[in-house]
Design a protein that fits this description.
Number of helices: 8
Order of helices and strands: HHEEHHHHHH
Shape: globular
Radius of gyration: 20 Å
Number of domains: 1
Oligomer: single chain
Length: 236
């Protein structure tokens, strides 16, 4: 492809990507509001119970479905969405970006993850949904249930970092791989919360949605700052 044609293709992509992100942002906000309304009215309670019980031994609700090694593996997955683990990952990536001379990108990562934590806390206090009591909890919990903080924060952290690292890669295969890893990690953390009985399925769905919305906002902010030259650009 000639240089002018390549430049035109990049301009088109620069125009299309923000538009797609805005469409996803609007859809995510609508989806979260609709789900929150249904949860508040109790319209999802029967489905939540059925899914939660489907993951338990019918003869003993205290026993999750599957062998003991699976239960231990799921606890490992749920730790990937804990505040401690995500804080360490955020710190490591931020220090790496600082050492690489990308201090503004490092600041964006800290603001994105820190802001997501504040938003998750505010949403939990605002809705105040009780934790499931239908089955014993497989993990210690001390906050309200809606939305799932693990699901939301893992979406915020992994999707934001995945998108940031993908922008630093020139090959599409590597970009797709990084984003795919981010999505899989977010999925595993959310499913683990339901499996352990500490969240209703709709809590996790709401956490994914809210986390995705926040990540999109951060991506849009990064694109805007890059165009203004206020944040370092990745490789094309």
């Amino acid at each position: 492809m000639s240089a002018p044609a390549l430049a035109r293709a990049r301009r088109r992509r620069a125009e299309v990507v923000p538009l797609l992100l805005l469409v996803l942002l609007a859809g995510g906000i609508w989806g979260f509001a609709s789900l929150a309304d249904e949860v508040s009215e109790g319209g999802t309670h029967l489905l939540d119970e059925r899914v939660l019980l489907a993951l338990r031994n019918p003869a003993d609700r205290a026993e999750p479905w599957g062998p003991r090694w699976l239960q231990e593996t799921v606890r490992d997955f749920t730790a990937l969405g804990g505040v401690g683990v995500l804080s360490l990952i955020t710190l490591a990536v931020s220090v790496f970006l600082l050492l690489d001379g990308k201090r503004r990108a490092a600041g964006l990562v800290v603001v994105a993850v820190g802001g997501g934590l504040v938003l998750a806390t505010l949403l939990k206090h605002g809705f105040g949904r009780p934790r499931p009591e239908l089955v014993p909890h497989g993990s210690y919990v001390y906050t309200s249930s809606f939305p799932s903080g693990h699901a939301m924060l893992s979406a915020v952290t992994y999707l934001t970092l995945g998108a940031l690292l993908a922008r630093l890669q020139p090959r599409r295969e590597l970009k797709a791989f990084l984003l795919g890893v981010a999505i899989v990690l977010t999925f595993l953390v959310g499913v683990s919360r339901v499996y352990l009985g500490v969240h209703w399925p709709t809590d996790v769905l709401a956490g994914w949605t809210a986390g995705g919305v926040w990540a999109i906002l951060c991506w849009l902010a990064a694109l805007t700052l890059q165009r203004r030259g206020e944040i370092e650009r990745g490789k094309p």
